[in-house]
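Fold it.
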Amino acid sequence: MKRVFIHNPFFRILAPPVFGVLVYLIILLINNNVGQLSTLFSEKEVYVSIVLSLISFEAMRLTLVLLEKFLPLERNKALIQIAVTTIVSTVLVLIAISQYYSRVIGFDISSRELWLFGLIFAFTSILYNILHIGNQYLLLENVQQLEQEQKLKENLESEFRSFRQEINPDLLYDSLEELILCLHKKTETAEELIDSLASLYRYQLVHRQTEFVSLTEVLQAIGHLLALANQKHSQQIKWSNQLQNANSIHIVPGALLTTVDSIIRNTLISPDSPLVFTLSQEDEDYFVLHHDLNDKLQLHEPSLEALQRLQRSYSLYSDKPFVQVKAGHENYIKFPLMYIDQTTAA
């Protein structure tokens, strides 16, 4: 059973004394005995009111516990819950106050006082139930929100697992086409391309189930990717690494590869307008991949979708967001820094 406010020990201890004093004050006001306020805590009736409040609250709580086992929270059954708890608590209070008058004071309680106590504690029961039902609905809403967040997290995890494990078919076909062009005239270049292609896909296959990998290993894979891309773009793609601590930084295996591949596929590259990547550290929170913007007229949608998927899913592994900032003719892609143990990355 989920713990709502009526089951909270502090509420069960503190509520009856506070409400008991309030009930006693209400009775004094109704009976026009306000002058007795000066002797409030010397009057035993105030303690009787506290005991009656305790009986009422505990009776309603136990009744609700029993009803919740058989009646789920619905509108029609909520009315039954209010009626049953009101009857049970009010009857117990009336029995208790009647016994107090007859056994302690020595005479029967008047019908007027009996009705007064009955009305006060019946109204109390209605308020108690309204608060409880409101609390229950709020709890259900919170549970639904948590379930939705959990489903969203599971979807992101599934999407990110798919992202880490997928093989880029466009890169494979582009590389094979360049190999076909080189096989008969540039055999040495063809061998180098085969080695780069094999190393790149070996890296992706090895790290398909790995959460984090050292940035140094990623940069080696980036070197193979650039070797394949430069064959198509006549060595017009340059790379500058200004990071001094790449070995201590870890990253999701496919994140930087996906980003670089997406940029290459959506950028116009020529001898007059080469593509130059610069990798540097901005501050203690991010390392930054920078290049000049020169977008193609027709963008490569699959690579852009992969980059968007990466941005959505990166929150699973870092509290800091994966950020892309376009300023003028420059593009800055910021990756959150993650310093972790080698054992965690493995």
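The chain is about 60% helix and 10% strand.
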